[in-house]
Amino acid sequence: MTKILCIGAGYVGGPTMAMIAKKNTNVQVTVVDINQQRIDAWNSDNLPIYEPGLDEVVNEARGRNLFFSTDVEKGIAEADIIFVSVNTPTKTFGHGAGCAADLQYWEKCARQILEVATSDKIVVEKSTLPVRTAAAMERILNSGRNGAHFDVLSNPEFLAEGTAIADLDNPDRILIGGHSTPEGKKAVQALVDVYAAWVPQEKIITTNLWSSELSKLTANAFLAQRVSSINSISALCEATEADVGEVAYAIGTDSRIGPKFLKASVGFGGSCFKKDILNLVYLCESYGLHEVAEYWRQVVKMNEYQERRFVDRMLKEMFNTIAGKRIALFGFAFKADTGDTRESPAILITRELLEENAEVVITDPQALKHAEQDLADVIDRVVFEPDPYKAAEGAHAVALLTEWKEYKELDYQKIFDRMAQPAFLFDGRNHLDHQELFGIGYNVYSIGKAPLKHI
Ligand code: UDX
Ligand code: UDX
Ligand code: ADP
């Protein structure tokens, strides 16, 4: 029986391994993490991450051929294939701070594998890493004297949060990078076989290691760039009375452009986009490609501009003062269907509102726990309220920041009746029915559209 180990039981490692175990009943999959609490949660009915459909997949495989444990060493010793899926955050110190990937967790992993392994292993980079990290990993792994041989592969994960299970079940493609030496090809084939259990062969792309590593960064950079591009146009729409939804639809019908990822918003968030672009920027700089670095840096700058612009607009439209005014934020997660708040635009928006001495009330169906952690330093100045009706009570404005389905279904007349007047609604996701809200009496502001104002 093939034994797979995954080091790192996070957003990527957990769901991916659960799917691999579900689809390969003849493979034993173990997920390890140094965080005992996380592993306990994976072994309970209360999984550490919220992801639609994940419970079913875990329940089917857990205890059969899917195991969660903190025994990293035992896992390494037994495994044939080791996925490394530990966190690679942006460095906060030293050279490349704020830009380069912090590879300390990842390198510790490589060293631990080397220390413990006594048989040959295939080591798979699952975490997003700078290009040529595999080379460093190979050098570390093959510096040992215990006779074990290591093949390093790159197999980036393209799942998006909130749709992880659907993305894993039916991926656009699986990308596997490896060396074209005979051992390299054998290792690639072993991993292809794991995915071929449910992914059609033509969707399994094999490339060299560096192309695979770079494709992950490039894919996220392109996706983020589309969001920044349409957001830049949304600012122009607000100035000209063009409608960004109409513009997005019109350009998206061009098959060369395509309709996806053209939804103007309050800004993109999530653990990947900003981090990966800054990583790309750092990589370009380190190769002396300053113009290329600048080109991609602008995508992040545009996103920050979009977040700030949202607050600026609130301030301006609410008579240039929001001091002492209660403002209800509907949604704190960086997108719907996830409890994740990493890099969520809501974080910066809350802080900017607090700078203006507004009274901020936050509601979200899944993300309140994380919101409390993100705002730990200002926690006594923010109210967290699971019930959106209560959150909006007495508020001067509601700002919708996450496109939760629940928020479409609220009784906005009831909310309006309990708000301070004149009532403002800022829709940061163009998620609600603006004409209906305007009919109720709200002053409605959306992204990239003319406002609907009574006053
Ligand atoms: C363009 C638009 O495609 C068309 O919709 C609009 O009406 C007019 O402008 P055109 O300039 O005729 O049309 O040619 P296009 O095929 O878009 O190519 C423009 C340039 O981009 C060419 O120099 C082409 O070689 C280059 N190009 C295009 C690339 O370098 N790479 C590509 O992948 C595509
Ligand atoms: C992303 C990539 O999509 C995924 O392939 C990669 O593996 C990890 O990074 P994720 O961050 O989970 O996934 O979510 P995604 O759906 O890409 O959304 C990212 C951010 O962009 C969200 O804040 C979302 O609200 C925003 N967004 C997305 C828009 O504002 N407009 C859009 O049209 C699409
Ligand atoms: P991602 O979104 O990439 O999955 P997460 O931060 O959600 O990232 O998950 C990474 C996980 O890796 C965390 O649970 C962390 O505890 C774990 N981790 C980090 N370093 C190690 C290590 N050396 N051994 C085992 N687990 C690790």
From TrEMBL:
Family: Belongs to the UDP-glucose/GDP-mannose dehydrogenase family.
GO molecular function: NAD binding; UDP-glucose 6-dehydrogenase activity
Biochemical pathway: Nucleotide-sugar biosynthesis; UDP-alpha-D-glucuronate biosynthesis; UDP-alpha-D-glucuronate from UDP-alpha-D-glucose: step 1/1
Organism of this sequence: Tichowtungia aerotolerans
Annotated binding of substrate, by residue: 157-161, 216-220, 256, 263-269, 334-335, 429
Highest taxon in the source lineage: Bacteria
Chain residues that bind NAD(+): 8-13, 33, 38, 86-90, 127-128, 161, 272-275, 342
Alphabetical keyword list: NAD, Oxidoreductase
Domain UDP-glucose/GDP-mannose dehydrogenase C-terminal span(s) in chain numbering: 328-434
Reactions catalysed, as given in the entry: UDP-alpha-D-glucose + 2 NAD(+) + H2O = UDP-alpha-D-glucuronate + 2 NADH + 3 H(+)
InterPro entries given in the database record: 6-PGluconate_DH-like_C_sf (IPR008927), NAD(P)-bd_dom_sf (IPR036291), UDP-Glc/GDP-Man (IPR017476), UDP-Glc/GDP-Man_DH_C (IPR014027), UDP-Glc/GDP-Man_DH_C_sf (IPR036220), UDP-Glc/GDP-Man_DH_dimer (IPR014026), UDP-Glc/GDP-Man_DH_N (IPR001732), UDPglc_DH_euk (IPR028356)
GO biological process: glycosaminoglycan biosynthetic process; UDP-glucuronate biosynthetic process
Class in the EC hierarchy, top level: oxidoreductase
Active-site residues (renumbered): C272 (nucleophile)
Name of protein: UDP-glucose 6-dehydrogenase
EC number: 1.1.1.22
